[in-house]
Amino acid sequence: MKLLAIDTSSLTATVALLDGDRLIGEYTLNHKMNHSQKLMPMIEELLNSCNTKPGEIDVFAVSLGPGSFTGLRIGIATMAAMAQALDKNVVGVPTLEALAYNLFNIKGLICPIIDAQKDLVYTALYQWTDGNMVEIMEQQVIKIDKLISMLKEKSEKIFFIGDALERFSSNLEDGLGQQFAVPPFKFLIPSASSVAGVARIKLEKGIKTDIIPIYMRKSEAEVQYEKRMKGSE
């Protein structure tokens, strides 16, 4: 089974092609959010480099968010269109799950954090148990200080990944002390091969997914619009 996966939920644009459990190729750009211009050329270049035609792809997988509203819409629309044109299935994968999968089978807790602006983060908590990644704290949007207070109650080492580390690493280290841990840089950003890995698990377990963006909060434009509407009443 050949599976094409992408993640455009953040600054990073990443595309991967799997054949069964073998990664054939992966292409990642972590420079400027211009997914509308770069995504299709990345897909085309990856498929050409791997001598694979679009019609040979059996399943498509896409990161659903949370993350950049625009990035998510671009990625989901692209995968949905390709899957529909080729009459193939598309699997949706929550971004937080895919990020946590970067740290496959690691000992300790995994806490992906994505910047949600205004001292908020999108987050969840995962742990590998008997080869399975288990969600032990539900996906949510939360103030960073409240997250730190909740995590202080844990006894295990906590590995943090995601783009919010750039803003909040000092807060986390000060608040959690020796519990705080950060893996090497390559594990901190989204990986399409991790999206593919989670998608394969969902397929094997027969888990069906809706291809609907996971936003968790209103966009800044929606917030400002509601403020203006209330002000005009």
List keywords for this structure.
single chain; Nucleotidyltransferase, domain 5; 5-stranded mixed β-sheet; 10 strands; 37% helix
Could you explain how this protein is built, in words?
The chain is an alpha/beta fold. The protein folds into two domains: 2-96 and 189-221, Nucleotidyltransferase, domain 5 (2-Layer Sandwich), CATH 3.30.420.40; 103-187, Nucleotidyltransferase, domain 5, CATH 3.30.420. It has helices spanning 35-49, 69-86, 95-101, 144-151, 165-176, 192-204, 220-232, and strands at residues 2-7, 13-19, 22-29, 59-63, 89-93, 109-115, 120-129, 132-143, 158-161, 180-181. The protein has a five-stranded mixed β-sheet, with helices on both faces. Strands 8-7-6-9-10 form a five-stranded mixed β-sheet, sandwiched between helices. It is globular and about 50 Å long.
Quick structural gist:
The protein contains seven helices and ten strands.
